[in-house]
Amino acid sequence: MGGTNGTASGPVKTTPLYDSHVALGAKLVTFTGYAMPLHYPPGILKEHFHTRDSASLFDVSHMGQISIWGEGAAHALERLVPGDIIGLAPWSLRYSQFTNEDGGIRDDLMVTNAVGRLILVVNAACKDADFALLEAEFPGGLDIAMHPEKALIALQGPAAAAALARHAPAAAALKFMTAGAMKVAGADAMVSRSGYTGEDGFEISVYAESARHVWETLLGEPEVAPAGLGARDSLRLEAGLCLYGHDIDETTSPVEAGLLWSIGKRRRAEGGFPGAARIQDEIANGPKRRRVGILPDGRAPARENTEILNADGEAIGKITSGGFGPSAGGPVAMGYVDAAHGKIGTALGLMVRGKKLPATVVKLPFAAHRYHKDQEG
Amino acid sequence: MSDLKFSKDHEWVRAEDGSATVGISNYAQEQLGDVVYVELPEIGQKIVKGAQAAVVESVKAASEIYAPAGGEVTEINDALEDEPALVNGDPTGGGWFFKLKLDDEAELEPLMDDLAYQDYVDGLD
Asked: What's the predicted TM-score (pTM) here?
């Protein structure tokens, strides 16, 4: 048997919940320098289904939490991201990207207007570079802090609201993409109604010393079970959500990536963020390639870097995320194809181990989003 | 205790009258996690010892399965197409992969017996 995971060398960091993962019997892997649970004893499939059916608790404390405060913080951040930060309502959050001068993506992030400060959640692999970028680009008078003293716990799934409300009644009143400061199981926390699974759910930022208490309290709820990075990945793939370093990177623009929805009208018109020239050109004239959902026929998963062919057998792109979608009941993938082949229903070929397997361009997501929005009945 | 022999790559072999049934060990399926797809060789295909003979895919990754001995594929386990989880549930029984008509039974000699394989696996963690 080949192809097993290698072990990264060097000192491995741990999150404040490391002891809990060990006690729960997690299979730990090194991910962006942290020992993180890949899965717990039930395994990825069961954890995936439990999230879709009930509620799962994820430790995502490896992610970077950064706060910015001072006069003009929103204006300053808008010089680095194409999202509308000035117009972000109090206690709302928004998805955006740090773009580079070529219109590629340095990182993607969530920005919360926590009234008096902006709170950023960024990818673990990028957090030091993001922080350096903010420090270098920001004028005097603004303060920036990274928050290694905080843990981040995600509670995701249709039963998440009921389970969390028993320990944080105010959480139940939050709508999708809003946030609030509240106590969770008696601990100071900032809770947002957001996540990375396509399900209703919450991300809970707490001080490291309260993390284990909050984690174990929520795990004590009958609907809640722990889930690892494996299920997090299959859930976000089915939800059609981008994974940084795979579906988006320094070469892909937000327009190519299908993230134009995250760039508001004013920002599209005004620009004023790195790479605005390319991004505005792509908005006006269309991108050369685009990220699409790809459904392989048959049962064989097509993994990242699988070559995508057109009907004539010519290479037109690559899979950026691919695997088995447990809720989809078969293989699912996302990748970039040239603009001519991006239409829903286009027939493609995928080169898997030397064989050309048929596949079709499909609408994302593979599993319908079930966020807690106003208009939902 | 068992008539199985094991390779260092975690395949098992059950040899009988010049043919061999091949699968992956319980340790291997535990390491892989939930198996969602198995790509099997074709009947009639000739495989040399150590060559890639099958691919097993878990939710997370694809892994190659190598032929623990050379021979011609005489049978494949079609049941894995509809129920790849057999590899997890019954790795040394219903989760078998393929059968080979062996070129040379002596190729099986370096393989480990049950106890030697258990020692080998215990040394890996």
From this structure: 0.94
